[in-house]
Predict the structure.
Amino acid sequence: MAISFSLPLVTVTVCLLSMSKRKATPTPSSSKQLNLYRKNYKGGGAKDAHLLVFRQMLEWASKSKIEEAETTSNRRVFYPGCHRHLTASLVFPDVTFMDYDSKVEPLYTEAAVKEYVDTNKIYAEDAHYRFICHNVDQTMERLLELGPFDLLISLSAGLLVQPCTPYVARHGYLLVNDSHSDARAAFVSGDWELKAYWDEETKSFSDLKLDQCFQVKKPKSTETVPISLDQVKESVEVGTVRNRSFKMLFEPRFFIFEKK
């Protein structure tokens, strides 16, 4: 009697221990990957200042001449150097994220993250996004298959516009900042036409002072000239503004270009 009674107790104890070691499925509130995203982007979602920029990009595009037949919200977006910037998927329904850092890949594959996107996206369509771990300086056949893309995003991840231009459709857009001189590189490349800049006062894109963008001040003069290729190269080499031999007239945070 003693033996038959103790065996079930042992079995139950083992089962409970086994269950306690089993990992719980992450949820949007418990996901480590989402917590990293929130940490990297000041809370993420609506707290991420880029959400407004992305939304204003859509509003600006909806008013442009090439949006008469098709809305940008239905287009394919390419975001190289994305790191953990999941916010783009809350605004754009089809995003191809790319980064050479494999540590960020789990964010884009976890089910809890997809649940978060589905809950917080601003569009009615189903959310589609994918992550590719790759260096943009190397041509990739899969990008050619996924493209051509209608919007290229380059935000503080180095000089990405030049190697990524071939993947963008003609008349496609570029949303870019100039923290790594990528915007000015696009300006002098001959492949892109400047269309709008970010207006800090209205928190929207504007073209009212477009002629002041990428203009260099002449020493001891009120005159300006367009930035040159050599000055772009200098910007890349020296980095910080204080080390440059020239000063820009007007330096907005973000720009929109159209591929010629």
